[in-house]
């Protein structure tokens, strides 16, 4: 089992509080109380959450909440933007490392961080020429690539790439394929390279593979081969939007949980 980076336990009392606030507020809207007039909420979300967070945002708006805009990018890119003063109201990261960094730098509102989702790491290929690959120590990925490219997030800073490199090193094949890497700024662009046939294989999250019918999963990396894939959510310290805590709480609501599960995520308890 690999050593994982330690993370600070979330403040469960605060998370429960914002969930209760969200429930009370939604009930008030349903009974006819007007929602507070406010500018749109801005969510910073890891690129692998495209689709699922959009769906949750629309559900929040239908429940009477303020309009929500979502900005997707690698968790590292978004974290650096928060450090530079970006006015995000909720940040959802695919890597505990970047949440830890923001928490240490006091860029997060104290007590709002909570574990939200989990994911799996998979090997994908274009659907029209996919064949199962058994992933084990020394599996012949270099031969399978046959001079072609392996698409994945850049392991220097994209969480999906960091997890993928760790898994390949666990099975002893990283050095044999590193020169054939097509590193991308986020995991969805790695998925697109495989979908277009520009890369013979790719390593992405299971939820990404589910999002594009042009690719097929040909192998699943065991969870012990890489650090646990955990998404967490928090409110950046700079947020002043009056609905930030309500939206954060909504992420754990039954509607949001159902949407995330439908997109293939494992839903965590805060």
What does this structure look like?
The protein has helices spanning 12-30, 52-62, 75-83, 96-104, 141-145, 159-170, 174-177, 187-195, 206-211, 244-250, 254-262, and strands at residues 41-46, 68-73, 90-93, 114-118, 121-126, 150-153, 181-184, 201-205, 215-220, 230-234, 266-267. With 270 residues, the protein is α/β, with parallel strands linked by helices. The protein folds into two domains: 12-118 and 229-267, D-Maltodextrin-Binding Protein, domain 2 (3-Layer(aba) Sandwich); 121-225, D-Maltodextrin-Binding Protein, domain 2 (3-Layer(aba) Sandwich), CATH 3.40.190.10. The strands form two sheets. Strands 2-1-3-10-4-11 form a six-stranded mixed sheet, with helices on both faces. Strands 7-6-8-5-9 form a five-stranded mixed sheet, with helices on both faces. Helix 2 links the parallel strand 1 and strand 2. Helix 1 crosses helix 10, helix 2 (52-62) packs antiparallel against helix 11 and helix 3 packs parallel to helix 4 (96-104). The radius of gyration is 19 Å and the shape is elongated. Residues 1-10 and 17-38 have low confidence and may be disordered.
CATH topology of the largest domain: D-Maltodextrin-Binding Protein, domain 2
Corresponding CATH architecture of the largest domain: 3-Layer(aba) Sandwich
Poorly predicted ranges:
1-10, 17-38
Sequence of strands across the biggest β-sheet:
2-1-3-10-4-11
In total, how many domains does the architecture comprise? 2
